[in-house]
Design goal:
This protein is α/β, with parallel strands linked by helices. Helix content is about 40%, strand content about 20%. A hairpin with a 4-residue loop joins strand 5 and strand 6. Helix 6 crosses helix 13, helix 8 packs antiparallel against helix 10 and helix 10 packs across helix 12. It is globular and about 70 Å long. The C terminus is likely disordered. Bound molecules: zinc ion. Zinc ion (ZN) binds next to loops.
Amino acid sequence: MVRSSGIGQEELRRSNLSAVLTHVHVNGPTTRAVLTTQLGLNRSTIGGLTGHLERLGLVTEEPSEGTNRRSGRPSHEVRPRAAVNVLAVVLDVDRIEAALVGLGGRVLDRRVREHPRGAKRVGDVVDTVGQMAQELVGPSPVVRPWGVGVSVPGAVRRSDGLVRFAPNLGWRDAPFATLLSERLGMSVATGNDADLGVLAEHLRGVAVGIDDVAYISGGVGVGGGFVVGGQPMRGFEGYAGEIGHLVVDTKGERCRCGSIGCWETKVGEQRLLAAAGWSTGGGPAAVDEVIAAADRGESRASESLQSTATWTGVGLRMVANVFNPEMVVLGGVTARIWEARQSLVLEGLLRGTLIAPMNHLQIEVAGLGHDSCLVGAAELAFAPLLADPVTMMTAYRKDDDLASSPAGPMGLSPAAPGS
Ligand SMILES: [Zn+2]
C-alpha cells in the first residue's frame, strides 16, 4: 500500500479504503485490532475507514467477543456484506454456469445449463446467460449485482473482452462482452478461464501465499494461467499463457489451431478417449471410465493413459523450465491424470533437463476444484469495487436511480437502503 506523503490526502484515503475492503473481502471477518496491525495504520484511522465502508454499505461492524489488547476495550469485528454481490459466469464446452457471489467470496446461489458440444451462436449464449441472470437475481432483488465477470475457454483481448479464439465454442473475434453488456445493461468483464483459475487459486485456493504459480487445466483443450512475482501474467494484449499450443511433436496430429503436434493434441481429453477406443464426446465421466478400465488392466485404455500421463509430464517440464514456478496447480482432466498416474507424469517431467531442482517444485490439484474459474470470474467482477470503493459505489447508486425506470440495468429495481 502506498502511504507516502507524496500523494494527496484524498488519494491516500481512497487507497486505504481499498486496502481495508480488500483485506476483509479476501480474509473474511476481521477485528479492527487485526486490521490496525496488518495494515500498519493507527486505531482511529482504521475506525474512520471501516465507518466509511459501513456507510457505503460494503461492510457491517459489530462489537466482537475479544478485547483490544492495548486499550482493553472491545474491538469491533468488520464483516464483508455478502448481500453486495456480483454475477459470475463460466462458459464451458458442454455447460454454462452462473452464480451470484457475495463480497467475501461466498457463492450465494447458482444455476447450470447443459448444452451440446460444438459451435454456438454468440447471440444464443448471450440470451442463455441473460435468462440465467434473471432467474438468479429475481424480479425484485434486494440488492442488484454490482458487476458481471465471465470466464471464457479461449483467448480474450484485455482491452475490451473480445473473444479472439475459442475453438470449444467455435468463436473467432466474437464481441461477447459487448453483447452481454447490452443485454444486461451492466458492464461485463471477461477473462480467459485459466487466467481466472490461477487468480482464484492464488487468492483463495491451494496457492495462497505463493507468488510464482502455474495453473494448468486440461479438458478438450489445455489452458495455462500464470502468476509471476505475485502478479498475473497477461501479455501485451492479454493473450499470454496459451501453453496448450506449444508444439511438442512435429510429426504429430493437426491441432484445432492449425498447427501440428500441439501439447493439447497429446494430453487433451479427446486424445485420451480416442486412443483408448472411447467415443470422444463423453467428457470427464468418460475420462473416469478410461482410468477405471486402465486400472482393470485393459490394454488400450492402459496404453492411452500411459501416453497421456507421460506427455503431461513432458509439457510440465517446459512449463517448469520457462516459468520456474514454486507451485504447479492442476485442474480438469490434467488433475485426474495426475491423480491416476503420478509416477508416469513425473517420469515424463524428469526425462529431460529440469533446470530448477525438482524438490523446489510443488505439484498440487486445484484447491477450489471445479469452482476455480467461477471464483476467478467473481474476483474479476469485484476488482474495480475493491480498487476504488467510493467512486464505484457512487456510480452504482447513480445506476440505481436509472434502474427505477423500466429500462434500467437488467430491468431490476434499486437496492433497498440498509438491506
Ligand atoms: Zn494448437
